[in-house]
Design brief:
The longest helix has 23 residues, at 101-123. This protein starts with a strand and ends with a strand. A hairpin with a 5-residue loop joins strand 9 and strand 10. The chain is built from eight helices and 17 strands. The protein has one domain: phage-related protein like fold. The strands form three sheets. Strands 6, 7, 8, 9, 10, 11, 12, 13 and 17 form a nine-stranded mixed sheet that branches. Strands 1, 2, 5, 14, 15 and 16 form a six-stranded mixed sheet that branches. By secondary structure, it is of the alpha+beta class. Helix 2 (15-26) packs across helix 5.
């Protein structure tokens, strides 16, 4: 069973771990929604469905044509993600009446881990960084790519609808874009005489929706991508999340917060935020991107 990071944290009695996960998820629309599949071992070899099988009508006595889906075997390897947070014993003893120093330091480390995951989720490339995993830009095929044109162009609702239609088997679970692209989308909505739907997520934060699909912001989607003669374009991603679609992979137990203990070389104690994680796309039609989005 695949559970999101937030849902998995509810099964733990570790208050420090729950606090770390809440901090990470609050800042990341991806971690709020992306389900993670627990796997045993250091990786998962799976078949990614490329094309679906066909069916036909036959008359009595006709020869039947065989049609099977096509798959590409993929391997997703768990990667080690995390960092250490050292809490100075002197500061903890002398300033704890003002602020919980341990909580503050661990919170900052959790945000660093979340930022690295969000960056890798979009831009990860094992060929360039062997210790990371491939992100959605690498996982998305050219067949699932919609373009604003040879040199890019300003976003239009027609193109956004085309992007959404590239995701098959139901609506996308998330539209992921930069802040600039969201501003452009808001301008398009206002110019058409309407506004984007709005609601609140499980943390009470405002979330906008387009055609009922949540809009997520990722600050690691560049607005300076090169396309044709322009280098000011961006990308919008549409995705379905879950088993059989786009899902995270994690080791049993998922994200952990480990108390390493007192250090020998300095008067401090160490806490380690550690996560063995990766990303898998089980069907190519569950992920699509719109490239060339200009301001």
């Amino acid at each position: 069973m695949a559970l999101s990071l937030v849902e998995a944290s509810k099964l733990s009695n570790d208050t420090l771990l729950a606090g770390v996960i809440e901090t990470m998820a609050q800042e990341s629309p991806v971690l709020q929604r992306l389900p993670f599949i627990e796997i045993v071992g250091n990786g998962l070899t799976y078949n990614r469905e490329d094309t679906a099988p066909a069916a036909a009508f036959y008359d009595v006595g006709d020869e039947w044509d065989e049609s099977t889906p096509t798959f590409t075997q993929q391997t997703a390897t768990l990667r080690i993600l995390g960092g250490d947070a050292d809490i100075d014993n002197f500061l903890k003893a002398t300033r704890s009446n003002i602020q919980d120093l341990e909580a503050a330091v661990v919170q900052l480390k959790a945000k660093a881990v979340q930022s690295l995951f969000d960056d890798t989720f979009v831009n990860g490339n094992e060929a360039l960084e062997p210790n990371s995993f491939d992100g959605i830009d690498e996982l998305c095929t050219m067949d699932q790519t919609v373009s604003m044109g040879t040199d890019g162009d300003t976003l239009s609702l027609d193109k956004l609808d085309e992007l959404i239609d590239r995701v098959r088997g139901g609506k996308p679970d998330l539209l992921l874009m930069s802040r600039r692209s969201r501003r452009t989308l808001n301008e398009l909505a206002r110019s058409s005489g309407t506004f984007l739907e709005a609601g609140r997520d499980q943390f009470g934060q405002m979330v906008q929706f387009y055609d009922g699909i949540p809009i997520g912001i990722n600050d690691y989607i560049s607005d300076e991508q090169a396309l044709g003669s322009n280098n000011d374009t961006s990308t919008i991603y549409a995705m379905q999340l879950g088993e059989g679609a786009l899902a995270g992979l994690t080791s049993p137990g998922g994200l952990t917060v480990e108390r390493v203990g007192s250090l020998e070389t300095k008067d401090a104690s160490r806490i380690r935020v550690k996560w063995y994680a990766s990303l898998a796309l089980f069907n190519t039609v569950k992920l699509a991107r719109l490239i060339g989005v200009r301001p």
